[in-house]
Amino acid sequence: MKNKYASISKKLFYALIIVFILLVCYFAAPFPNQSKRFLFPTVAVLVAIFFLLGAALMVFTIKANPEKKQKLFFLFTGGVAAGFLLSILLHNFIYGLLIFLFGERIWETLSVPGEPFFFFVAFIVCPLLFLIGVIGTLVLFSKKKHHAKRNKK
Hints:
The chain is mainly α. The protein has helices spanning 2-28, 33-64, 68-102, 106-110, 116-152.
């Protein structure tokens, strides 16, 4: 039974990588603003899928109960993926809340263009941490394959 969960976790992990690449392409590619606005609903769906895949990866990893390092990297990767959407939502919520409480001039008063903390977390910290989780997991997979090949000989 655990093997089934481990297989699902691995598939979720690779699906996360694919969705991450698509999101990076949207945010990093120099599309004209009209194109980005046109694609925004698709990107919103991708962010939701990224969140769901991350949450599912954490659930299936806990059920699979893999070795300690792999469990740590899977949980880390899934948590960061889920945290991306949460950071975006918190950024927008706090931005709107501060405008509601203090008026639209709050940003001029603070000399800040908007709520920077969760924006920074969502678009700088989460992608970097996601890459660390992915690279760590891929290194573990590589070591496991190498070790399996050595034991066959």
